[in-house]
């Protein structure tokens, strides 16, 4: 739920640089979907879902969201540094 409230705050924050806001919004969305996929993998590991169908597929989805979030955070850091040096 923290990610959802952060998404709403980013949408409403008009004072932040537009590019930075979009990047942070995308990063937060990736974080939200990472959490959803992680819970699905966890439930499949507990046996509530078929591990053959869900575990490997959702584990890859979870890893992709984690990678996307990490790349976006790196871009955000570089963008922040470039804003401060200009």
Written account of the structure:
With 86 residues, the chain is an all-alpha fold. The protein has helices at residues 2-12, 18-46, 51-85. It has one domain (2-12, 20-85). It has three helices and no strands. The protein is elongated. The relative contact order is 0.14. The mean pLDDT is 87.
SSE blueprint and pairings:
Elements: H1 2-12, H2 18-46, H3 51-85
Label this structure with key terms.
elongated; 86 residues; 3 helices; mainly alpha
- Overall helicity: over 70%
Strand content: under 5%
Counting DSSP H or I runs of 4 or more residues, the number of helices is 3
User: Which term fits the overall shape?
Assistant: elongated
Gyration radius over CA? 16 Å
On the 0 to 100 scale, the average pLDDT is 87
For the record, give the distance between the C-alpha atoms at the N and C termini, rounded to a whole number.
36 Å
Question: What is the total tally of β strands?
Answer: 0
What is this entry, summarized?
With 86 residues, the protein is an all-alpha fold.
């Amino acid at each position: 739920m923290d990610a959802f409230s952060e998404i709403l705050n980013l949408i409403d924050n008009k004072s932040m640089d537009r590019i930075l806001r979009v990047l942070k919004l995308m990063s937060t969305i990736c974080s939200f979907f990472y959490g959803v996929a992680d819970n699905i993998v966890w439930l499949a590991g507990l046996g509530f879902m078929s591990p053959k169908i869900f575990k490997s597929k959702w584990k890859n989805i979870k890893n992709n969201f984690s990678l996307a979030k990490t790349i976006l955070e790196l871009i955000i850091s570089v963008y922040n540094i470039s804003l401060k040096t200009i």
